[in-house]
Amino acid sequence: MNGRDRILSALKLQPVDRTPVWFMRQAGRHLPEYRKIAKDHTFWERCMDTELCKEISLQPIRRYKQIDAAIVFSDILTPLPSLGYEVEYGGGIRISEFQFSDIDEWEKFDSRKHAPWAANGLKAIGEDVEDDLARLGFSGCPWTIGMYLIAGGTNDKEFSNTRAKIFSEPKKSHHLLNTLGMIVGDLLADQVNHGKADAVQLFDTWAGLLDEKSYRKYAMPATKKAIEVFREKVAGDVPLIHYAKGSGHLHKAIRELDVDAISLDWRDSLKVNREMFGDKFAFQGNLDPALLHGSTEVARNATIDVLNSAGEKPGHIFNLGHGFAPSARIECVETVLRQIAGD
Asked: At 265, phi and psi to the nearest 5?
């Protein structure tokens, strides 16, 4: 089997010749070849220039031969510049001021017109990998994008003031989140329809800050809207993966979403989730990314633990419980991949 076959078979709960593997944030900060490009180009240049995006997305594929999927180099905040907000990176995230009244001034979002970069990058990646590797697109969930937008970036610790604002303005907050849901759905659909992504992933990084009641009231309806728009605009049954950091207490609700796979945080029990729900969902994960910063022996043993927790039942994709940090050691990543491949 090639990488594309492995990924798609696992997402469909079908047998594979070995566990498929890719890594969140595999394209980027831990690679010296990426840091070389980053010295000469701004973050948004790296995202928006199709050739740069393609090159960065393919760097981990060239370095790590066992990886089964190329995920496009992009960002969960991709829609915001097209909505009129400046988004700056470096020492945190800074976003120009947002008011709820802005929403009615937003132009109707069309990914082909307003934010085509991820889809363009995916299409370009396909020229190199053809059908040998799966191509993955992604977007942030409406809740997480909305949190950053209202907060103006990352200065609000645990988004305490941001959540207070959302809870005190429920009608306006629902309008924002529902609008972002339609934007996210269109963005993901473009990555499939134009970019030819084989599957897509939704990242809800900050959903775990909510209790289940608040999640169901605020974040979940907007995510449902994004998925609904995506399904309406995409022909065929394109797999959708959902990831929410620190969300173990929300999994009952998350399992009600129209998703094909759930990507688990390193604090979640892969074994329990696979045993209880592995006949309905594929599961992705869930190595603690911190274990890639130290010894290769620790990384190898942790990989064995994850594979043992996953068991033999079809429907597991090896990944991290969160994305690579810049300090991840290449030797540790190589050790993980060798163990998965049985080399």
From this structure: -60, 155
